[in-house]
Design a protein that fits this description.
This protein is an alpha+beta fold.
Length: 83
């Protein structure tokens, strides 16, 4: 996916289920304001084309290349919650 598309989807729904090329799907967020996430150390600033997310599946920050994302589903949609 294009980086701009990924960022706009994260802006509308910060919690997303991401399908990645060659990896398992992860539950990720770009909302770093929760007390739980603030306990973890943030890595360095991502490179061009990368997006910094918190991976709830592995409890760590990840730099994900937007080109490796094959599908994004908002968590609210997966849980059938209206937003």
């Amino acid at each position: 996916m294009r980086k701009g598309t990924v960022i706009s989807r994260f802006k509308s729904n910060p919690d997303q289920v991401l399908s990645l090329k060659g990896k398992e799907a992860i539950l990720a967020t770009t909302d770093f304001r929760t007390k739980y996430i603030r306990r973890f150390r943030r890595p360095m600033i991502p490179k061009t084309g990368d997006i910094l997310v918190f991976d709830y599946s592995h409890n760590r920050f990840e730099k994900i290349n937007a080109n490796n994302i094959t599908n994004m589903n908002p968590l609210a949609q997966v849980l059938n919650n209206a937003r």
